[in-house]
Design brief:
Layout: H1 3-16, E1 20-21, E2 34-38, E3 41-50, H2 56-69, E4 72-80, E5 83-84, E6 89-93, E7 96-99, H3 101-109, E8 116-119, E9 122-127, H4 129-138, H5 143-150, H6 154-160, E10 166-167, H7 168-178, E11 183-184, H8 197-200, H9 211-218, E12 222-225, E13 233-236, E14 241-247, H10 250-267, E15 270-275, E16 283-284, E17 287-291, H11 292-297, H12 301-312
Parallel strand pairs: 3-4, 4-7, 6-8, 14-15, 15-17
Antiparallel strand pairs: 1-2, 2-3, 4-5, 6-7, 8-9, 9-10, 9-11, 12-13, 13-14, 16-17
Amino acid sequence: MSREDLINTTRAILARAGFDISSSLTLRGVCFDIVGRKEATLLIIKVLSNVDAFSRDNAEDMKVLADALGATPLLIGETSSSGPLEAGIVYSRFKIPIVSNETLGEHLLEEVPPFIFAAPGGLYVRIDSSILRAAREGGGISLGTLAETAGVSRRTIQMYESGMGAMIDAAMRLEEFLQVPIIEPINPFEYKSEKKPEEYEVSGEGRTQSNALNRLLEIGLAITPVTKSPFEAISRSRQTIILTGLGAEEERLIQKAVIASEISKIAGKHSLIIVERERSAEHIDSTAVVTSGELERIDDQDALTDLVLSRGAKK
């Protein structure tokens, strides 16, 4: 299946599941292909035929965006060097969850969550440590008895009771012996950020390589630069988060502004393009257009936020 077909399949699954979804991105060098939202779940998705092509740089850029927007980064794939991605299994690369479209569809459309995750050494399941401990203690069962049943050490049973994942065979033997469901489903949209959004930000006296972004810093906004994205930064004021692009080439400017508009609507944010030359339009789609000259005359972040909100609302 071509990557375009994979992307279309992913978008179809999300749409059927009730997600608001973006168009597939057409800009080259962007670290994600789709943005989707349903209620509190915001997904930033990259789709690749072979997930081994997913680079560390792309992963780090997706994490920056996810952390800044309160989203989950997700990689959809078809194969790896080990073979096809199997249904019902959550893989990972650079700590970003990976699933096949089949797993995504089962989870969203059939309400059948995955139960297995791949990690170094093989395939594992998560054990509900509190149920395991309660079943063992309530039944007066020793650590040694459970260890013998599962074919592992006493220390391993203690680690299961502390939240460590288990090999599939060991977990199934324990569940059959205890006669209680101890294997937990996995939420493929679960993502634990390694950093706080503020750790990526430039603020205060800090500076970037862009004069326009530095002007935003001067009037009090915090800036998270992003490289492989349809916009150059995520700007945060007291009031709101703004997807912020810089425009020079006319054709690319319009393309970037339209994409930023679509993504900002789905993410529940606002979007801004800063341009050098005056334009007749004060917005492109719902993306506010502000010239560098106007920006120089603004000396308060609230004034800029109000301008972005008012121009973006004129669509």
